[in-house]
Amino acid sequence: MRHAKFGQIGSFLTGGIVISTFLIGLFCYFTFVHTCPTLLPVVVETEHFRVHATNVKQAACMAAIAEHALARIKAEILIDSPEIDSKVDVFIWPSQKDFHQAIASSDISNAGVSQLILAENGRLMRRIDMAASAPAEFVLPHEITHLIIGQLDIRRRNNGQPAIPLALHEGIAILAEGKCNDELLMKAGMALDCIAENGCESASESIARFDRLLNTNDYGTLSDSCNFYAESYSLAEYLMTELKPEGLSRLMTSLGDGLSIDAALQKTICDESDAFKHNLIKKWHAHARNNTSALIAMR
Length: 299
Ligand SMILES: [Zn+2]
Description:
Elements: H1 2-33, E1 42-45, E2 49-53, H2 56-76, E3 88-93, H3 96-102, E4 112-118, E5 124-131, H4 136-158, H5 166-175, H6 182-197, H7 203-215, H8 225-256, H9 261-269, H10 276-298
Parallel strand pairs: 2-3, 3-5
Antiparallel strand pairs: 1-2, 4-5
Helix pairs in contact: 2-4, 4-5, 4-8, 5-8, 6-8, 6-10, 8-9
Bound molecules: zinc ion.
């Protein structure tokens, strides 16, 4: 009996210890492990990037993609852009969960995020987070472009100017991905065709629509993000075709210098007439429709 009794108490105590240990384990997991992103043990540095990843091969590969993307953007798209004067920290998270935890957000649909932080000592800190499963050859140039344009934005903010339109940020960032995004061009062209089918817009209506696109400065207020990205890309693609990298860079430099978007556009396209904006919109829409027709013909 004593044995039995002892045995029962012993079993009870042993079971309690096991359960307690299990519960403490659960507590520790959800408090310290589950809520913290995986630590990235490897850092590989190149001229402009400091890549944090889970292994050397991955970090070196991402660093090479990032350096190549930066060189291409500076040679072919934003040719007079300001220098990146401090290394960009790039974090390659092993899972989507780690990625979202690292950026403290779960409602971001894309696989990369860039941040430009102005430290109190006036130094710019640059950071890109992305999931390892994301297509780095597109995500990295996209986010690097945001960092470059963001630097111009900081100059505007220091001059008390509103931010560079989100449509230019996103349109040029998609352009910098380095592939022709047929899907977005098609969507933009069809949206513009839809306007034409429903009756030609008056000049004032098309200008109001254009202004709405360029006055959007908050992702949270996008009512139709698909069309916003499509039209932004279509506009950037048109500006690149029309102005070439030299003109596009002049436009961005003018914005960085503090000009309003209207003044910067008018100066860059060299149209001093009062109808410069309507003229630009007509040419852009015609270009977008031509793109759509060409894409349909290729199918
Ligand atoms: Zn973007």
